[in-house]
Design a protein that fits this description.
about 425 residues; Methylamine Dehydrogenase, Chain H; globular; 5-stranded antiparallel β-sheet; single chain; about 45% strand; mainly beta
Amino acid sequence: MVCARSSAGLFGVLLAVTAAGCVKSSGGSPAAPRPGMTGIAVSGAGDQAPRAPLTNVAAPAPASETVVSRLLLSVQPIGRVPFDGQLLPLVSPDGRRLATSVGEAPSWATILAAPQAGPERGRIEIYDLTRSPPVLVPGSSDIPVGVVLGRSADDAGFLVESPRPDGARWIGRVPWTGGAVEWLVQGTGVNAGATLAPAGGRSPVFCTRGVDATACGLAAGPSSDSAAAPAPPGESGYSFPAFSGDGSVLYAFLTGPRGTELLALGADTGDPGAGFPRTLARRVLAANREPIFAYQAVSGVQSPAVGAGAAPGLLFHNPAAKRMQIFSPVTGRLTDLAEGSIAGAWAPDDSGLAVLVTAPGGLVQHRLSTDETGLRALPPSRVLDQPWVPRATTDPARPFVLIGPGPRDQPRVLELVGLRLVTEPAK
């Protein structure tokens, strides 16, 4: 069964959070942060922090274990872009382009690649973020109507999926300049939820099933004729794979009798099409077996995640825990992030590992530390007082593009802001 509640989408949650907790301008829309460099006090790890015993879920470190440093913020308004009210845009790794779904939003059956999926009428537009306000890229008009925006992008382009008249589903890539779709995965199967590898040069990994089947396996390559990892007997199958920052681990959700699980699979044997021979770790997240659970888990983080090269696990949203978490591929342990957080991005800097997450109180930063007990998240420090969704980039002048709701009377418009963070010791 597919959930059809539009409120289950990330921006349904984000709009509710914004209405409840953000600063508003006189025009009724969330107040954009002021441009320029601003300094705030943030928390960092103390040198002699007490060590907690190993537990299955790591709680954030108490405030008594922190010292204060100074976080400098450089904020740059970018402008507004349209969207379909449902799907989050994709940002190019260099932060220069954005792909957004406009017009009629795809049905939940299509988003979840369910058997009830049918033809769609929405469109995809590409915007140049080097201009303010953003400018529509002319090649957008060449993208076929009805293709669905994917969840993965690299320097070459972004992924789209195309429900076919015969019930099959193809996966393609569109260049950031627009133009014709390069079809990466064709065939007679239903192929969906694809992700690109962080280093490039590999085939996308995706979930696949027959048109009349329900169990999804994992596959890679130009065809879905055979799955590299078929769904285990008795399981409903895999969904929404994602690579680790170095490409050595493939994460995927597995739905079955125990509910929804998160798995870490070894992917260090070359092309993922060669198979995933080792399960490194697995964790039951919830008894919930609905496909939308896994969708909600991944919809707030772009794949592959920029800045995740040294990341100690998968950053994802756990709807059961009602917060962002980090899943360790070594221990299967979950590290809790800010309560109520729904999206995030890795934010490493010269001071070490950190993440930005979208929380009810605004955009917050967690610094991360490790000891023999595993990964620890230090108390969150508020960066901005509105719940912006962060997208990391490789641009040192604008390492993050923030996405937030536009004016209240324009529910299908998004506000974009550039952000740069500099952490320095408190004086």
